[in-house]
Design a protein that fits this description.
This protein is mainly alpha-helical. The chain has helices at about 10-15, 30-35, 50-70, 85-105, 110-125, 130-145, 180-190, 210, 215-220, 240-245, 250-260, 280-290, and strands spanning about 160, 170, 190-195, 230.
């Protein structure tokens, strides 16, 4: 049974009941996790474009940032906009549609201006009534959506600050980031070159379950890894590679993204949102008052 706060609710019934209060996520990490936990696995299989999984994460991070700004009241948004999961899912459908259109034309080109307009101006921007708030969304779209995201020589980071003790570093995790030394050895034994141009070695602090994902997919496949002929895998075309699809079905990306999200710090400073460090003073004061009042 659910109810709104009302004064005439029977006290006796309330005392005999279990009370469950569900609060919305209040940090970037929790918002990201909520998005991917509720995301259907089938979503990752609906496009063969190699950039599709990364762009889902990109969109999820943008969605988390948009939601997290709301806790800062007027400093975050001029009005309390009702951004919700439906905005994210509709945006994913738009991504899927335009990426599939590119594949049908035999091209991998991503129509960034169109995507930025439809997602930033129509879907999310359609709820915004203040010109300054609309400018904020427009800035996020320019910072997060572009070909620069896939530049291997200059890795993209949503936010990075290694000077602080927690070393905040938000980026788009890639499949190669989760390959342990043993997994790389298996691929080298099969004469498959997957050495990235830039090595992250994130497996050092990822949950142990991720380090076993690769081996489990090998065991489930019907391929003898010792008999695979030499072939070089192009990272930008991994999703089109038959071997890759058999080892790593697209649905595995959700597990990989969740593993990356789990190792993110729970607290995130307002700098990540593009706000001044003092922006959280009012939020922390209000939160403390609500707890102890």
């Amino acid at each position: 049974m659910t109810t709104e706060p009302i004064e005439k609710f029977p006290i006796g019934l309330l005392q005999k009941s279990y009370k469950v209060v569900i609060e919305p996520p209040s940090t970037v990490k929790l918002n990201l996790r909520s998005t991917f936990v509720n995301l259907n696995l089938q979503t990752f299989t609906e496009s063969d474009h190699p950039a599709y999984p990364c762009m889902i994460f990109m969109l999820a991070f943008f969605h988390a940032i948009i939601l997290d700004r709301r806790k800062y009241d007027k400093i975050g948004w001029s009005c309390n906009y009702d951004f919700n999961e439906s905005d994210f899912h509709v945006s994913v459908d738009i991504l899927k549609a335009y990426l599939n259109m590119s594949l049908e034309r035999g091209s991998l080109e991503i129509q960034w201006p169109t995507l930025r307009y439809l997602i930033g101006e129509v879907i999310y921007g359609g709820r915004v009534i203040d010109s300054y708030d609309r400018r904020i969304i427009h800035t996020y779209m320019k910072e997060y959506f572009g070909d620069f995201v896939f530049d291997y020589f200059q890795p993209f980071h949503f936010f990075i600050d290694t000077n602080k003790s927690l070393k905040y570093d938000y980026f788009i995790p890639e499949l190669r980031d989760f390959l342990s030394a043993k997994q790389r050895w298996l691929l080298r034994e099969a004469n498959i070159s997957i050495e990235p141009q830039i090595e992250y070695n994130f497996e050092k602090f990822l949950p142990e379950k991720v380090s076993n994902l690769f081996q489990r997919n090998i065991e489930k496949s019907n391929i003898n890894i010792n008999q695979i002929e030499y072939q070089r895998i192009d990272y930008q075309l991994l999703s089109k590679n038959v071997l890759f699809n058999q080892f790593f079905p697209y649905s595995i990306f959700r597990d990989l993204y969740l593993a990356y999200i789990d190792q993110l710090p729970l607290y995130n400073p307002p700098d990540i949102l593009g706000l001044h460090a003092n922006a959280e003073i009012n939020y922390l004061t209000k939160t403390a008052y609500e707890i102890y009042s």
